[in-house]
Amino acid sequence: MKLKGVYIAFFAIISGFLAGCELLVLDPKGPQADKLANVIWISIITMIVVTIVVLVMLTIILFKYRASKQDPDYKPPHIEGNKYVEIIIVGVPILIVAFLSVVSVISVHQVETAPEGYETDEPLVIYASSSNWKWHFSYPEQDIETVNYVFIPTNQNVEFRLYSHGTISSFWIPQLAGQKYAMSDMTNYLNIVAEEPGEYFGRNANFNGEGFAENEFNVTALPADEFDSWIEDIQNTAEPLTEEKFEELLEPGHLGHMTFTGTHQDFMPAPEGENSPHNHGKSDSEDDSGHPH
């Protein structure tokens, strides 16, 4: 009876927690996140079906084969194995795993490339680099840099180039894309599209020390004309980013939102192409991943 009470309390707590949570991954605002949300729903529905089937079979077995008042000398008849039952209990799990594997492989391929419908567009390139415990966003084409916040235009492919100035971090915007690692000796690539203007939550999803809990950033998606106005305003008002100032920003700790003209790519470029430790005789126009400089 006590165990039953523990179960009831456990499920009540979980239900209350989920009721108060905003499941951002299931509220996608872009094509990449939408694909990932579909995979999550497929997995959830598959697990629910499996759970229901198992519970129904368990209930039937418990009632049909429960202990009865047999004669003490009763010996049950010898029963040979049923090949059809064995095929089912082995084959069905294999089919389920194969199905989920195919869905996962297809979705991974889709989210690793430019979003559908934006393949031929020239992407907006933003370098997103982490340091303990903050995020630096460099816009090389616009010649500006921000700290702990990033603005992007809606309905345009944005290519984030990810790396770290220290420990491994994980770049994650739940409503726009899945997480991807930022490491100190290589550059990873993540393409996203925000199809709706708005404010989005981003964070480091990889534990990397005492400041991990507050290692967050804000993402603002604006219509193209408003984004251009924001760029122009920054170029006219922000202070320039110097190498000395950037060295200060790299010190461990938390910072608020900061904005600069210029980027640290000018004096401390990302580990890609000729700056990458993985470059082994590649041409000047291409790095190890096949991405142009």
Compact summary:
The chain is of the alpha+beta class and 293 residues long. Helix content is 35%, strand content 21%. It has helices at residues 2-19, 31-64, 83-111, 224-237, 243-249, and strands spanning 124-131, 134-139, 144-147, 149-153, 158-164, 169-172, 180-182, 188-192, 198-204, 216-222, 239-240, 258-261.
Structural class: alpha+beta
- CATH topology-level name of the largest domain: Immunoglobulin-like
CATH homologous superfamily identity of the largest domain: Cupredoxins -  blue copper proteins
The main sheet comes to: 7 strands, mixed
Radius of gyration: 26 Å
Structurally, the number of domains stands at: 2
CATH architecture of the largest domain: Sandwich
Molecular structure report:
The chain is of the alpha+beta class and 293 residues long. The protein has 2 domains: 20-66 and 81-111; 124-272, Cupredoxins -  blue copper proteins (Immunoglobulin-like, Sandwich), CATH 2.60.40. The chain has helices at residues 2-19, 31-64, 83-111, 224-237, 243-249; strands at 124-131, 134-139, 144-147, 149-153, 158-164, 169-172, 180-182, 188-192, 198-204, 216-222, 239-240, 258-261. Strand 2 (134-139) and strand 3 form a beta hairpin. It is elongated, with a radius of gyration of 26 Å. The chain starts with a helix and ends in a 32-residue tail after the last strand. The model is unreliable at 17-21 (pLDDT under 50).
